[in-house]
Design a protein that fits this description.
With 109 residues, this protein is an alpha+beta fold. Helices cover 13% and strands 32% of the residues. It is built from 1 helix and 5 strands, in the order βββββα.
């Protein structure tokens, strides 16, 4: 009798190097232990949001917008934080402030 695999949800953020599209996807990472292996060899399998077993999303990610394969994996939430910061920067551009040279103590002006 094989024990049930344990499952851990893991969210990845992706950014396409071709079109700039960013997205996140959550996968269930299933861990299996082979009871017949001498050291109890463990393997893992990724299951996508639709319930399909897929290869590691870190190996062969494809952009859903343009089909590009120059996909970068980011920390989960990073793509959303970058989008939000870009939106805030566009809504509130920084004010220009003149730069004056620093004065050193003991140095004449």
């Amino acid at each position: 009798m094989n024990p049930q695999p344990r499952s851990v949800p893991e969210t990845f953020a992706f950014a396409c190097g071709d079109c700039g599209h960013g997205w996140e996807a959550t996968f269930q990472v299933m861990f299996f232990t082979d009871p017949l292996a001498p050291s109890g060899l463990a393997t893992q399998e990724y299951v996508d949001e639709a319930g399909r077993a897929v290869r590691s999303p870190l190996d062969e990610a494809v952009c859903p917008r343009c089909g590009g394969r120059k996909v970068h994996v980011l920390e989960a939430g990073l793509a959303e934080r970058a989008r939000k910061a870009e939106h805030e920067r566009a809504a509130h551009p920084p004010r220009h402030r003149p730069h004056f040279p620093h004065r050193s103590p003991g140095r004449p002006d």
